[in-house]
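Running co-folding for adenosine-5'-triphosphate.
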Amino acid sequence: MGNSASVKDKKNKGSTITVAEANTKQSPGGVKNNMEKRTAPQRGGKFQEVHLKKSADHKSDNLGPNKSQADKEVSSSPRSNSKTAKENAAVESYEKKAQSRDKNTTAPTEGDEIVFETFIMNDGREFQCLYTGGIRFYLDDWHSKEWQPFPHRWYNEGRFVTGNILADNNQQQSNSSNQQGRSTEQVAEDVQQSRKDDREGTIHHPKRGTIRTYLFKEKHYVHCFFDPSSGEWMRLPLGWELQHPLVKEMVGQVEEALPNWKNRPHILAALRVCNYNPDECISLYLHLENDEWLNPPKTSQEENKLKARDLKVKELDKKVQSLEVKLKNEEKLRKDAEAQVLSLQEKLSDLEAKSGMAVAQVEAMQQTRPRTARPKTPKDKKPQGCLSLEELDSLNTKTTEIHKCHAQFKLTVERQLEALKTMILQANETAKKLGESDVGHMKELEEIRSLYQRESLQRKLLYNQLQELRGNIRVFCRPRRDDKVQPCLTFPTDNELMCSNSDGNKKTFSFDKVFKTTATQEEVFADTKPVITSCADGYNICLIAYGQTGSGKTYTMMGPEKNPGINIRALTELLDICEKRADVKVYEMKISIVEIYNEAVIDLLVPNGKTVELKASGTNFRIPGLTEVPIRSVDEIKQVMKTGDENRSVASTKMNSTSSRSHLILMLTIEGKDKVNGAISKGMLTLCDLAGSERIGKTEASGQRLVEAAAINKSLSALGQVFSALRTSQMHIPYRNSKLTQILRPCLGGDAKACVFVNISPDVTNYPETCNTLEFGSNARQVALGQAKQNVKRMRD
Ligand SMILES: Nc1ncnc2c1ncn2[C@@H]1O[C@H](COP(=O)(O)OP(=O)(O)OP(=O)(O)O)[C@@H](O)[C@H]1O
């Protein structure tokens, strides 16, 4: 695991270049001519006479035109260059340490096996190294990009990380810097001789004129200026340093990312703490401002509180429903009342029309009525055609009756009108009251709605906290099914696994879940389902498969077409969630697929694959121009996967790689817009099938396979270092050390959730690799628990 890797690949034999050949080609200065005899440690723990390149005495001359970056760095820094007795003592002490560590952590192997190591210099720089046939090389990935002989003097200037990458984290040694004892003139001279780099600079001082500055790299960078009057390098005051162009640029970067942070000297002070790394400075600020981790640890009361809140939310749910029913009833009542008012208004206007007609009739009758006849005198003669007295009397009576009727009718109409007016007034009042109560209910409903939303948000937060308490990184162990091999695994409980070899060695490991070899794809997926749900709520989720080649990583993640693995199931589950929540949220899902091969990131959704670059963006990294394909159905998911797979085959043929030598990463962004309050949630699901974690075998340790193995070793080590830093709650998490950790950064740490599948082979012949994988998983699991407790119980019969 991690720093030591071996692979068996017989395909590439035609193009095999041995390490010695490769170095002869790579170092025109003639590596073989510059060899000397010295004692070097063997992995078996013995010392033997071997040839090693003469590096300390011949410094850069043996590297010819490929003068290594490391040598340049060393010569430019104020350190001792000569090989001393102190150095030899350091070499021997290292060798003794390596010998004793090998006994404990690494199984003895053949004499000239390739062993990968990481060398960390006291100033923090890291180099990938390989050790074979008693010779150690380092990968000069700054300048020549080739393997260079490991300089002798470096033994005194750093330490190796070997064996278990996580376990080695505690082996920090505080080697004292060689800088002590060197005069400032020598230091100044070294700086003058060094090649021009961005650490050199000048500042114009109003009294002292132009002053030379140099950004020293110690444990942390320290920006100093050379003071000729005292002959010493002095630390630059904040005010001066703010004038330096490089520093100005860094401060500007932080200011741009954090516009609220206006105090430039404070920013610079924080930059100093963060070793002049603006990204780190930004993340430090955000960490201190918002980080949940700074909150006091949760107690068991939290769980009770969560339950109580859940109950409250349910009650509120019921109340909302009953209020909605009530509101509907009241709305119906209001509509009825409105209809009644309308019909009454119609009746009223009808009656008004009728009464108007009646009045008109009466007026017409009054106008046509004959004048009252004068009383008849005896002299009068009844003219012809005139009415008789009796007739007139009866006419009078009728007229009087008509008058009476008219008066009565008028009275009735007036009364009716009055009654109608009162009714209309009453109806209006009722309608007004109904309207008011409607507004009241609406207000109440709105309040309850917002309360409900707040509660459900709080529920999600508490659910998230509960998940955090259970562990943000959950580790599952899945052994491959293989009935033809001699098994080395037993399963004492659902959380424990015992691994034993033919010598009777036994190791027990604990995980969040240990699947049996017979576990189905459905059973494996069931445990990740709740975590995936939270992706739709806007959380970053990551599922990683780690293990040696052939241990079932691809089977677990992708699976066969008829029995798919986690990838298809997770995406289908998310589509289901989106559909279920369609009433309240509108979701949009986009997918990208990339492959990391030899530290190059390849976009697999472009025909034949295209190399893309990672760019730092605030505290995270983004990939400008990366293809994103929207998905809306299971068929679309399958189509995208097929395209990715086809392009991966073409790309790997082009690069002469195999799928097990690269990491495959599937990235899905899911954006949901709340229909009620318009809130937007953005989650990310990262599904990662890592390259095989096994060690390199002797026969395959050449040419391209060697570079591949170094790249895999580097990225898996970086992943282990990130877990390690998270486990020990370090301020600086070394995400930058590999492309893999840069891409996985949003899903590791913070409030992201990760599930790590450690895939193992049940075969007893794979016992050492299986133990390495299980140890990686155990260490990753401790990140979740936040404890430095060792989960591995070692037993010997
Ligand atoms: N749980 C399982 N049940 C049945 N067959 C399995 C299981 N796990 C793995 N296999 C089979 O084992 C073989 C190797 O598995 P797989 O390709 O998934 O390994 P891997 O770790 O992804 O290897 P590589 O690193 O080369 O990609 C495949 O043929 C696969 O079908």
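Result summary
The chain has four domains: 11-170, 196-217+221-274, 301-367+390-457, 471-796.
Residues 389-470 form the longest helix (82 residues).
Job closed.
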